[in-house]
Write a structure and sequence with these properties.
This protein is mainly alpha-helical and 308 residues long. It is built from 16 helices and no strands.
């Protein structure tokens, strides 16, 4: 009976390939030729290719069923795959903006960061802040739109001012004058809107009026997010505001309207500015409210005295 040629003789004739021996051992028979041999070689090559891909991609194999069709070389199945629970957010303090953004056609609500900064400055944020806001506007085009920006039903007045005053920074002179007149005629002014009604002299010429309005409104807005117990940069900002005598007088006027100070609404940032100003009127109002703070915060706020 004929025996398959050994490896040595095939090597000598130059026709030996390692896979021939392996294929012969797997099939247990003689050497194949023609279509059968070609099919055997293709199958063996496919097996080696699959093994190589498996060895080269241990990371993909570790990912489990997500990449299994690629790793195994089997036809891909697009059915649902259970990947386990999705990663959860690390907390509620991931956000894109530090305050509500005003734009046409959208409603805005106080952001967590905005309310958090008010609390850091001594402000109070009521539970009503969870209620939906009123429709917001872009740059106001009329006095009525300015009032809609500044007054929002169900919002804490300080948060409403922080959100609504930003679009008002660049008002034209006629809207500035009209808004001041409208504020003076309202009975529902808050601490910030009382001060806002006094930050400019409406009789100034247009160019000076617009510049003063923007500068003084920016300083008044800074009080909503600058803490008296914060960083050195925040301290410098409060001292800068204290040197703005128009804003300081507007703040004095606003606090004078609160005959019985509410302990929950004492804002150390305001008191720091007044103490830094150091005038008799400022010290009088600052003392009234500072007496309602805890001793540690009282000491910090008193540290601003006469620094401006």
């Amino acid at each position: 009976m004929d025996r398959p040629p050994d490896e040595g003789s095939r090597r000598a004739r130059g026709r030996f390939r390692p896979q021939d021996s392996q294929a012969s051992r797997r099939t247990g028979g003689g050497e194949r030729s023609g279509p059968a041999r070609h099919l055997q070689d293709l199958q063996h090559g496919s097996h080696r290719s699959r093994s190589r891909r498996g060895r080269q991609a241990p990371g993909l194999q570790a990912l489990g069923p997500v990449f299994r069709p690629v790793v195994d070389g089997s036809p891909a199945s697009l059915g649902p795959v259970d990947r386990g629970p999705l990663p959860q957010s690390p907390g509620s303090f991931l956000y894109l903006s530090h305050r509500p953004v005003s734009s046409l056609g959208r409603s805005i609500q106080p952001s967590e960061r905005g309310t958090e900064r008010l609390a850091a400055g001594g402000g109070s944020v009521s539970a009503a802040m969870d209620q939906p806001g009123t429709p917001s506007l872009g740059a106001p085009k009329s006095v009525d739109e300015v009032m809609q920006c500044l007054f929002r039903d169900g919002w804490d007045p300080s948060v409403a001012f922080d959100a609504g005053s930003r679009p008002c920074l660049n008002l034209p002179p006629h809207l500035i004058r009209g808004s001041i007149q409208a504020l003076l005629g309202r009975p529902d002014l808050s601490r910030y809107t009382h001060a806002l009604s006094r930050i400019v002299e409406p009789t100034e010429d247009d160019l000076a009026l617009r510049a003063e309005w923007k500068r003084n409104l920016a300083h008044l807005r800074s009080l909503t997010f600058t803490s008296a117990t914060g960083t050195e940069r925040q301290r410098m900002k409060l001292l800068e505001i204290a040197r703005n005598k128009t804003v300081v007088k507007a703040m004095q006027h606003a606090l004078q309207q609160e005959l019985l100070p509410d302990p929950r609404k004492v804002e150390p940032s305001w008191l720091a500015v007044l103490y830094a100003d150091g005038t008799e009127a400022s010290i009088l109002e600052a003392n009234r409210f500072n007496a309602l703070l805890d001793p540690k915060t009282q000491a910090v706020v008193l540290g601003y005295r006469d620094e401006a």
